[in-house]
Design a protein that fits this description.
Elements: E1 3-6, E2 21-24, E3 27-33, H1 48-65, E4 73-80, H2 86-96, E5 103-108, E6 118-125
Parallel strand pairs: 4-5
Antiparallel strand pairs: 1-2, 2-3, 3-6, 4-6
């Protein structure tokens, strides 16, 4: 099956050897997003809540570029350098997703690129 590379200038450009997303059939694999502002590639200003919102906004932009939305996400992986921020993730996530929620993992990690504090990737399933 052919792979389609998804790109958008509405989300941060890749800072490594990866694509923003790859679509295979009706499944889209969204690469990890950190809280970079697409226009400047600088870390968003503000606290962890602002960073979490920026990550969801970035994922949303890539989802739109692939022809979907966060409502099409079936699996979400969340990486946090401080699991004390888990409650904040849940609060903000409830503003971006409605039930039924996607499957999800929240993983505590030692560090993330650019000292981001939060990174998320996702798998999205589009209607055929």
């Amino acid at each position: 099956m052919a792979r389609e590379i998804i790109t958008t200038d509405q989300a941060p450009q890749a800072i490594g050897t990866y694509s923003q997303a790859v679509k295979v059939g009706t499944t889209v694999y969204l690469s990890g997003q950190i809280p970079l502002v697409p226009e400047t590639m600088a870390m968003v200003e503000g606290d962890i809540e602002a960073r979490i919102r920026r990550v969801f906004d970035n994922l949303s932009a890539v989802a739109r570029a692939a022809g979907g939305s966060l409502a099409d996400v079936v699996k979400l992986n969340i990486f946090l350098t401080d699991l004390a921020n888990f409650t904040t993730v849940n609060t903000v996530m409830a503003e971006y997703f409605t039930q039924p929620y996607p499957a999800r993992a929240a993983i505590g990690v030692a560090s993330l690129p650019r000292d981001a504090g939060v990174e998320m990737d996702a798998v999205m399933e589009l209607d055929g």
